[in-house]
């Protein structure tokens, strides 16, 4: 599903900062991989590269056989909207929109769909994350766990093949984190998702099929460190 080969990433500070050093990664379809490592080690940068959010790197990334470096801006945007679901620690919900409108945001960047079909899909996603009946609420009236469920519903809206999660439990208490992880496990099975999660949460790594650690710009199996 994901093949990243010899990824090099540098930031143009003074002096130049190198973050990823010849990093390679393969993730099989349907696999759940957790990535740990020190803050600032390049974990989130790698997620941005895998998801097509960052094009300023050397090396090659292919997702589901599609070479990201060969895509123009329009095709890359379509890839992000159709193939990748992003879940963030900070939720990134828009308070002036309802819960349903936040979930349906990917439809704004896709080919035209009828309003009825967009609403139906958004409601289906809310049911999947346990928020049936919350469509008309506003994000600023939700708990942290509810906000993360809305973020997950939005990530699922376009039926992505791949889910990229950046510290998805980082802003949640222990009990709520457990609920969100249970939800991820159910969705991982029912949606047949390939999932890569950046985390410091041991409960997240305990549930992953494979755990890798970012060190010196490369990924290492946890047992090798």
Which features would summarize this protein structure in a list?
four-stranded antiparallel sheet; 33% helix; 225 residues; six-stranded mixed sheet; 27% strand; 7 helices; globular; Rossmann fold; alpha/beta
Number of helices: 7
CATH fold description:
Rossmann fold
Estimated share of beta-strand residues = 25-35%
User: Order of strands in the sheet with the most strands?
Assistant: 6-7-8-3-9-10
Order of helices and strands: EEEHEEHEHHHEHEHEE
Q: Point out poorly predicted stretches.
A: none
The CATH architecture can be given as 3-Layer(aba) Sandwich
3D structure, described in words:
With 225 residues, the protein is of the alpha/beta class. It has a single domain, classed as P-loop containing nucleotide triphosphate hydrolases (Rossmann fold, 3-Layer(aba) Sandwich), CATH 3.40.50.300. 33% of the residues lie in helices and 27% in strands. It has helices spanning 43-50, 73-83, 99-103, 115-128, 144-156, 174-191, 202-207; strands spanning 2-11, 17-27, 32-37, 58-63, 66-67, 84-88, 162-166, 194-198, 210-215, 218-221. The chain has a six-stranded mixed beta sheet. Strands 2-1-4-5 form a four-stranded antiparallel beta sheet, covered by helices on one side.
Question: What is the fold's blueprint, element by element?
Answer:
Elements lengths: L1 E10 L5 E11 L4 E6 L5 H8 L7 E6 L2 E2 L5 H11 E5 L10 H5 L11 H14 L15 H13 L5 E5 L7 H18 L2 E5 L3 H6 L2 E6 L2 E4 L4
Helix pairs in contact: 4-5, 5-6
């Amino acid at each position: 599903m994901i093949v990243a080969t010899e990824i090099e990433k540098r930031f143009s500070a003074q002096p130049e900062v190198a973050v990823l050093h010849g990093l390679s990664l393969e993730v099989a379809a349907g696999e759940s991989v957790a990535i740990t490592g020190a803050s600032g080690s390049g974990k989130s940068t790698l997620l941005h590269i895998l998801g097509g959010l960052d094009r300023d790197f050397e090396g090659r990334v292919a997702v589901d056989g599609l070479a990201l470096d060969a895509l123009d801006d329009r095709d890359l945007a379509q890839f992000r909207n159709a193939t990748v679901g992003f879940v963030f620690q900070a939720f990134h919900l828009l308070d002036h929109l309802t819960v349903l409108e936040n979930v349906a945001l990917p439809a704004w960047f896709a080919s035209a769909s009828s309003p009825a079909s967009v609403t139906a899909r958004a409601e289906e996603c809310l049911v999947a994350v346990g928020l049936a009946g919350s469509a008309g609420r506003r994000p600023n009236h939700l708990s942290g766990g509810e906000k993360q469920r809305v973020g997950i519903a939005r990530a699922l809206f376009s039926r992505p093949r791949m889910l990229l999660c950046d510290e998805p439990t980082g802003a949640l208490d222990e009990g709520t984190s457990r609920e969100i992880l249970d939800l991820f496990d159910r969705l991982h099975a029912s949606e047949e998702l390939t999932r890569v999660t950046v985390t410091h949460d041991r409960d997240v790594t305990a549930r992953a099929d494979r755990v890798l650690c970012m060190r010196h710009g490369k990924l290492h199996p946890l047992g090798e460190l």
